[in-house]
Write a structure and sequence with these properties.
The protein is α+β, with helices and mostly antiparallel strands. The chain has 10 helices and 7 strands. A 4-stranded antiparallel beta sheet has the order 2-3-7-6, with no helix packed on it. InterPro entries: Acyl-CoA_Oxase/DH_mid-dom (IPR006091), Acyl-CoA_Oxase/DH_mid-dom_sf (IPR046373), AcylCo_DH-like_C (IPR036250), AcylCo_DH/oxidase_C (IPR009075), AcylCoA_DH/ox_N (IPR013786), AcylCoA_DH/ox_N_sf (IPR037069), AcylCoA_DH/oxidase_NM_dom_sf (IPR009100).
Length: 388
């Protein structure tokens, strides 16, 4: 795969270079399957089998439990490369990878349950995600109270409700559900096993990111034992793990950029003596793509490195983490748009990947944190500064 070599300077060690090469090989394999899964809206079980075989799923697991304990910087670097091949696969697995990092750094789960999960990831290729969104309450980042309820019964809890945007639902054998506990007038997290009381309703038929398996999950008095209620102390991490999201969209934008460059170097209309890459107008558009992509990438990697390097400052980094997502997502949309302008009307053809990139990249606007939340946090940080 001909990756955007501008990203190579972000590789700092030979170990990172080896992992990046392995992921680029996976991405090239996934790129060949992406069009089919996109058209069908089918979940890429084949891609996840390859990820499991390559040991990708355990990279964020602590070394003490058999994982590689990679950093946020490493996660960003690998997720961007994976999305170059298939945005849906990268975004879907990114939720697992990011949450494993989040659980590792915050220690928000009871330690025995976290250890069991880690061993299952390493031994069986298990994955995890949290299902919190609902049709009535929307995204949990908006603060809505879940309508899914948890009722105390002998030995544990019964959960009833319906979750939307449940990414990875076709492949998970366990997942976290947020539910309202009437007797406590508060919400709680529960680790749910896939049983007959859990049904995946295949509702995911969207414009972009069609192969993430983000269907509805219906719980009909699903039993959760008392020890699977996830009550832990934990620490705040500022949400650094969510940088897997902008990394994914930069990967999609990089793929669009490279397609447009290849097209410009080789396409020669009969009225021109040279390919269109020689035209000043096309070169100007390429330059615009580079500004958007390089700006977003430099910010994303800088913030990830700070998060790794300054564990005591992670909460205060939240505005910058949100800014990295805001810039990366919006710039990625611009890059894909510019790439399509270079290629012209044929960029709309479903025989080319550009139209899929165009659809996929727009999904970033609806992943957390949302643009208005980022702007509000930045404004609050500015207004909170001591007056001079």
């Amino acid at each position: 795969m001909n990756m955007d070599r501008e990203i190579d300077p972000y590789i700092r060690t030979e170990e990172q270079r080896a992992r990046a090469g392995q992921v680029e090989e996976l991405a090239a394999r996934f790129a060949k399957r992406a069009e089919r899964h996109d058209r069908e809206g089918s979940f890429p079980f084949d891609n996840f089998a390859d990820l499991r075989e390559a040991g990708y799923l355990k990279l964020m697991v602590p070394r003490a439990f058999g994982g590689e304990e990679l950093s946020l910087y490493d996660l960003v670097m690998l997720q961007e490369r994976l999305a170059y091949g298939d945005g849906s696969t990268a975004l879907a697995v990114g939720w697992h990878m990011g949450q494993m990092l989040h659980l590792r750094t915050t220690r928000k789960w009871p330690q025995p349950i976290f250890e069991q999960l880690c061993h299952a990831v390493v031994r069986d290729g298990a994955m995890i995600n949290t299902f919190a969104s609902e049709a009535a309450s929307g995204s949990p980042s908006r603060g809505g109270r879940p309508e899914t309820t948890a009722v105390r019964v002998e030995g544990g809890w019964q959960l009833t409700g319906r979750k939307t945007f449940s990414t990875l639902s076709p492949i998970l054998d366990r997942f976290v559900v947020t539910a309202y506990i009437p007797e406590e007038e508060a919400a709680g997290d529960f680790l749910v096993q896939r049983t007959d009381q859990v049904t995946v309703v295949e509702t995911w038929d969207t414009l972009g990111m069609r192969a993430t398996g983000s269907h509805d999950v219906v719980l009909n008095q699903a039993f959760v034992s008392e020890d699977r209620r996830l009550i832990g102390k934990g620490t705040e991490d500022g949400g650094g793990w969510l940088l897997h999201i902008p990394a994914c969209y930069l990967g999609v934008a990089s793929a669009a950029r490279d397609f447009a460059l290849s097209f410009a170097r080789t396409y020669k209309p009969n009225q021109l003596a040279e390919p269109i890459a020689t035209l000043p107008s096309v070169q100007h558009t390429i330059g615009e793509m580079e500004v958007e992509l390089r700006t977003a990438r430099s910010l994303l990697y800088a913030v990830a490195e700070r998060w790794d390097r300054e564990p005591d400052s992670r909460t205060s980094l939240k505005p910058d983490l949100g800014l990295a997502k805001y810039v990366a997502t919006n710039n990625a949309i611009k890059v894909v748009d510019l790439a399509m302008r270079i290629v012209g009307g044929t960029s709309l053809s479903r025989q080319l990947p550009l139209e899929r990139y165009y659809r996929d990249v727009r999904a970033g606007l609806h992943n957390p944190p949302m643009d208005n939340t980022v702007l509000q946090n930045l404004a609050a940080a500015a207004l909170g500064e001591a007056s001079q």
